[in-house]
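call fold(seq) -> C-alpha cells
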Amino acid sequence: MNKTLNNKAEDVMDFTCYRSATIWSRADFLHEGEDWLAEEAPVALVYNGISHVVMMTTPKDLELFALGFSLSEGIIDAPSDIYGMDVIQRCNGFEVQIELSSRRFMGLKERRRQLAGRTGCGVCGVEQLSDIGRAVTPLAFTQRFELAMLDNSLTQLKRFQPVGRLTGCTHAAVWVSPQGDVLGGHEDVGRHVALDKLLGRRCRESWRHGAALVSSRASYEMVQKAAMCGVEILFAVSAATAMAVDMAQRYNLTLVGFSRPGRAIVYTHPQRLY
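ret:
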C-alpha cells in the first residue's frame, strides 16, 4: 500500500505508507512485521517558469509552504506579489508553479542561485559564505507573552502531528495566541518546511499577536525565517544553536529553547516574557 496526495479531504493515510520490516524486541527477538512511514516527496517551487528550489517535504499544504517560503526567503514582501499559484503532480514529485509580479521576479533573478534540498543543514547550494545570513530589519517590541501559558500550548502540539503520531517522523510548527491557545499548525518531515507552512498560514490568517512554537531545535535558519516574517517570539522544544542565538540577539527576536511544561531557557530578549 502506498498512498499519496489526492483531491479528497485530507486524511493522515494519504501521507503515510507501510513497509515490511524485521522487528526486534527482547521478548520475541526478531520477527517479521510492518511499520508505518511518512511520505516524502520532492517539491519544486517554480517562479514564472523557472525552477528555483527543490525541497523534500511531506506533500501536504503545499500552497501554504510556497507562500511561507516566498515570504521567509525574501522573494516576496506580501501575498499580493503572487498573482497565481498551481500545484501540479508529476511522475516523480510535485511542482508549485508561482506567478510573481514583474518587480519581484526581477529581484529574484538578480540574486537567484542554485539550491538543493535544505531539510538537513539548511545551506546546501549557497555559493559563498557571505550568502549565509540575510539582512533582516530588527524587530519592534510589540509582543508580550506569559510563560505560564506555554504549558497549554505544549500539550496541544502533537494534535497537529497526525502523521507524526503514526510514524514518529515529522516536525510540527504551530502558532500560539497570547492566551496559550494553538490557533493552527502544520507538520512536515522537514523542520524548515513545517515552519514555512506555518508562516504561510499565519500570513493568510493575519495572525499577529502571539508566538511560534516548533517541535524541533532552533537553527539559525529557523530564526532567520521567523524574523523575516515579523515573528517576535520563537519557542523551540529542543536546543538552539550558538549561531541562532547570535542572530536572534541581532534581530531583536526572543528565542526560547528546551520548552517544557514549567521550564524553559530564554536565550535572548527576555523583556517580552513575564
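Residues 190 and 240 are 17 Å apart (CA to CA).
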